[in-house]
Here is the input.
Amino acid sequence: MRHKKKLAKLNRPTDQRLALLNNLAKQLITHGQIVTTQARAKALSPYMDTMINKAIKGEVKDLRIVNACLNDRRLVYRLKHEIVPKLTRKSDGGYTKVVKMSPRRGDGALRAMVAINYERAD
Here is the structure.
């Protein structure tokens, strides 16, 4: 059964889609928040949540998986030692927030801001 296996294809083949998500995740870790289209933001949010969950576990196996996605040890270090300790939420998700913005000026594409959610979840 394929329950809960649906994901956004973003009109790209698998390798290009994964490269896009990896680059968006790198930029999110580097800058803390990014502005992109709503479709990309919705696809990035669960992808980033799983990477943060793996960084929270902190086992060697999980950090190697994160390093394989990000392909940059400095970003893995930053995720593990700078971002994860600031997070107050210790659950299975909700580490990123997606905020809708005004449409893009050139082509009217719907935009969204993706940010790491440091807020308290009470």
